[in-house]
Amino acid sequence: MRKPLIKQYCATDVVPAKMQPLHNLLQKQPAAMGVVQMVSGITIFGLGVVLATTSPLTLATILRVPLLTGLLFFISGVLSALLHKFPRLLPICVAVNIGCLCVAGVGVVLLTIDLSSGNPNVNHQVKVKALVMCVTVLEVCITAVLLFWMHRELRSTNKTA
């Protein structure tokens, strides 16, 4: 018996899609974490402006801790959100997040010192400083999780390359 000249095509096997760069990291939605970083960075920056204009000179206001951390978190959030479009930003994003984590750690310590040595009679300043510290601690947690994910992805891409 002869084989037919024309064979009917039947799509039974699913061809897997090509893996995108940073596939494992992008499944964890770093863009959503980046948006949270941007929003809380803007919040910290705004509260830092309020503290700088209304409070007396303290260690955190002299060093402009809320302004610096707010700006750094906003930049870090923008970079994290852009990872989907530009995967080559991963090493830069890791470096900026490490810097944010260090500055925020110092900022939390300085804000804690300010809160412990502050004047309890000025109630609104204590509330604003406590709010800045809470949002900064939230940012530290988000940045630590993002750094863990990014470091894992960076290590896995270096092993395959």
> Which spans have pLDDT < 50 for at least 5 consecutive residues?
none
Quaternary arrangement of the chains shown? single chain
Sketch the major β-sheet. none
Tell me the overall shape. rod-shaped
Series of H and E elements: HHHHHH
- The N- to C-terminal Cα distance equals 51 Å
Q: What proportion strand?
A: under 5%
Share of residues in helices: over 70%
Which class of secondary structure composition applies to the elements?
mainly alpha
Keywords: Membrane, Transmembrane, Transmembrane helix
Membrane topology: Multi-pass membrane protein
Main location: membrane
Subcellular location: Membrane
Task: Characterise the protein shown here.
Helix 2 packs antiparallel against helix 6, helix 4 runs antiparallel to helix 5 and helix 5 packs antiparallel against helix 6. The chain contains 6 helices and no strands. The longest helix is centred in the C-terminal third of the chain and has 38 residues. The chain starts with 22 loop residues before the first helix and ends with a helix. It has one domain. The chain is mainly α.
Helices and strands in order:
Elements: H1 23-27, H2 30-54, H3 59-62, H4 65-82, H5 90-117, H6 123-160
Helix pairs in contact: 2-4, 2-6, 4-5, 5-6
Q: What is the gist of this entry?
A:
α2 (30-54) runs antiparallel to α4 (65-82).
Please tag this protein with its features.
mainly alpha; membrane; CD20-like; 161 residues; transmembrane helix; transmembrane
